[in-house]
Amino acid sequence: MQQPATNPNVAAMIEMLRGFPAQCEAAVAIGRDFDPGRHEITNIVMTGLGGSAIGADLLRAYVASSATVPVQVNRDYELPAFVNERTLVLAISYSGNTEETLAAWQDARARGAQIVTFTTGGTLARESAAAGVSCCRVPGGLQPRAALGFSFFPLLLTLEKLGVVPPQATAIEDALRIIRQATAHYASEENLARDLAQRLEHRVPLIYGSWNAVGVVAYRWKSQINENAKGIAFWNTFPELNHNETVGWSGRAELCRDLGVVLLRTPSDPPRIRRRMDLTRSQIEAQAPVNEVTAEGAAFLAQLFSLVVLGDWMSLYLALYREQDPVAVYAIDAIKKALAEG
Ligand code: PA5
User: Is 227 an annotated catalytic residue?
Assistant: First the structure.
């Protein structure tokens, strides 16, 4: 396994992951202090890409059962047609310079939408200040994907302040406790994250989330494997996968043999979902190894973050087993640079 001493970026990613509990605490404090202004709205659209959009995805799924207005995520240059002056657009870009997010921000302005921005700086911060738009500034210096605390908690607390979701204090405290516990555990010598990484070293990971926002966590695992471990990975979620992907496992066995499945479960999974997962496991385990992990924590938010932290550390250990630099994302940078040059 690659060691921190041989690549400073390994040590840097370990530091980012070790710092995640402190980041989340800081993010909660920033969210509590931030004044998003007063907004009379009928819907919310969060717009961002990649590491800046995953917090929005998690938030959309987490608040789906409690939000008083529809909440959507946009990843395109243009916003959906329904966006108007009664829409609150939350534009999120860690760098503040992402082309698609800046285009969506301009689109929001052109339509007279109400806007709040979340960034470390860049063009988004500059243009927000010039336009008199509330901008929640978060600290820089991290990889956007390692800044999930900053792209989640201030947004959640913004929705709470607007009265769109019920008070979150208890759920947040529980989540922070689990994030601290899980981080300490997965940073240790022997742990499930390392173990899973070893089992996936020579396989194409296929991550299945149990339901609801756990599907977003499965997508987070896939993206972290892509960016940290430099590997192709796939994800899906129940119950939907039982209506298509399930059939894919009944075809030619040699096409499945390099896959490594991870089932993400939570104590909150409804009984029908648990049954679906058991049935699916029995259908696929002859074709590829199936690993299972179960979230910890009492509140659903804590359970989601316990799986996020596990996936983040697993992807780091996978990078080490595969001897990959867990920080650099040259492929993303190259495309951004080429597009910026015209
Ligand atoms: O992980 C990454 O570096 C990317 O997915 C970025 O988050 C993405 O390209 C968008 O950049 P930003 O988060 O700065 O808006």
Answer: yes
